[in-house]
Design brief:
By secondary structure, the protein is mainly beta. It has one domain: Sandwich (Jelly Rolls), CATH 2.60.120. The protein is 15% helix and 40% strand. The strands form three sheets. Strands 1, 2, 4, 6, 9 and 11 form a six-stranded antiparallel sheet that branches. A three-stranded antiparallel sheet has the order 3-10-5, with no helix packed on it. Strands 7-8 form a two-stranded antiparallel sheet. Strand 1 and strand 2 form a beta hairpin.
Amino acid sequence: MKGFAKKLGVGLVLIGLLLFAQLGYSASSMDDYTTRYLDLPGNVDIWVLDWTAHTDGSFTNATTRWAVDGYVFMVIVNPGATAPQAAYDITLLDSDGMDIMGGQLTDLSATVTAQFVPMIGTVYGTRFVRGPLTMTLSGNNINTAIGEVIIYIWGGE
């Protein structure tokens, strides 16, 4: 019985350490919401992706709750109050795994808001997108850094 009690005690200590470690580690997150401006010609949707990095600065890819059904014509990137590391990168992947911004959201500033137009190959312009978007973030090591990606979509349903 002593051996069992000792093993049980060790097991409980290990479970406690695992739970404590989980409490100290915060997962990354992305909260998405959308605003529709029906009074503009052709309808314009504005999607806002608020993101937070893990406590170690990493970010787990996140997919939007809604599907795009229209032309993305501009994206604005805002670093947050807890700014990410300078020269961090974001991609917005469509359902085929293609970056809808054509690599435009790389080497982003930790302090300056920037706006971008999608690029297909070497041509800038609108890009048709159908389906949800997956946001990736890399090149950041700032604990719980935050930011915002604003996506302007024309012609949504």
